[in-house]
Amino acid sequence: MRRLVRETELSVNDFIYPMFVVHGSGVRQEIPAMPGCFHLSVDELCKEAAEVRDLGIPGILLFGLPKSKDEIGSEAYAPDGIVQQAVKAVKSAASDLLVITDVCLCEYTSHGHCGIVQDGRILNDPTLQLLAKIAVSHAQAGADIVAPSDMMDARVDAIRRALDENGFANTAIMSYAAKYASAFYGPFREAAECAPQFGDRRTYQMDPANAREALKEVALDIEEGADIVMVKPALAYLDIIRRVKDATDVPVAAFNVSGEYSMVKAAAQNGWIDEQRAVMEILTSIKRAGADIILTYHAKDAARWLGKNG
After folding, report:
1. Residues recognised as catalytic
2. pTM value?
3. Interhelix angle 82-93/124-141, nearest 10 degrees
4. Per residue in 9-19, pLDDT tens?
């Protein structure tokens, strides 16, 4: 009876699995702040991607860690950059797996910010040119979707124009449209080695107290050409997910971020909660709030649990 009248049905088809790729060979190093997640070299990434595909998860989101960093994040848009290498390899090893790439500069810049810095200020407009170059380089490598996470104004328009001009009209954009300046990014910043070297990101990420602003940001990104819009984080922003879902007619994604993941892992390791029940309840709440797509580090475990229960 409970299954018959259930209003929200969680499916493996809802998930995208985020992954971290690094230079080298045979690298599979667990991230201390994110148990169960790893820094993977391209060869190991391909093995993991095949596992993701075999679990029925539709796609992955790639974050790259460069060999070296500079003021303008050069490796982010280099043809032989780590993400570009990874995309080519994954598309060769698991061609039916959707490959999404994070488009940002923070992992690649020496200062750790998401844009060009001059005299301690983030320069919005000059950053757009670099973001467009990153997106095009990812599309050239074979990415199916590019996902700008920088929160610069007008970056979706710049990326859409660049993709179209370079023959990638069919490459979709999943915009981090409502990305909040959140405390829940801590473990990710350790994993991606992208903590800001000065200040913080509150000048370009959203104030957690604001909801109407999220709808404005989402509307602007859709107008500029976003195919999918994202709310990030997810768990503390379920109301934003619902408001965005009600206000738009494009697919809505939600990122169940590193801090949300690590809190569950830590509590489960201490025996304070039932991990499986907690994870499935959290993911169901994100789906119930209105998310069509859930990016989550729990994706592989959740896929296995759904398979057993199904």
Report:
1. 179, 232
2. 0.94
3. 30
4. 999 999 999 99
